[in-house]
Amino acid sequence: MEFIKRVKSGKYRHYKGREYEVLGMALHSETLEEMVVYKPLYETPDIAPGTLWVRPAAMFLETVTTAQGEVQRFTPLQA
Description:
By secondary structure, the protein is mostly beta strands. The protein has one domain: DUF1653-like domain (SH3 type barrels, Roll). The chain contains 1 helix and 7 strands. The protein has one helix at residues 57-61, and strands spanning 10-14, 19-27, 34-40, 53-56, 63-66, 69-72, 74-76. It has a 5-stranded antiparallel beta sheet with strand order 4-3-2-1-7. Strand 5 (63-66) and strand 6 form a beta hairpin.
């Protein structure tokens, strides 16, 4: 099975306004589902700094419905 890199590393903005850094992609060990590995670029009192998160690539790349209409869940930021 060839791994498809669909989400590039770099900074992204979530549709709610916060920024994140995508570190790369991974495969779920049981299902082989493509996952995006990322970290928040902000601090919160309830989550330790440097905590890594994963989200299915399909969800990371999908559009969501807001009061302003359909928008990308995450959009890449220019360097």
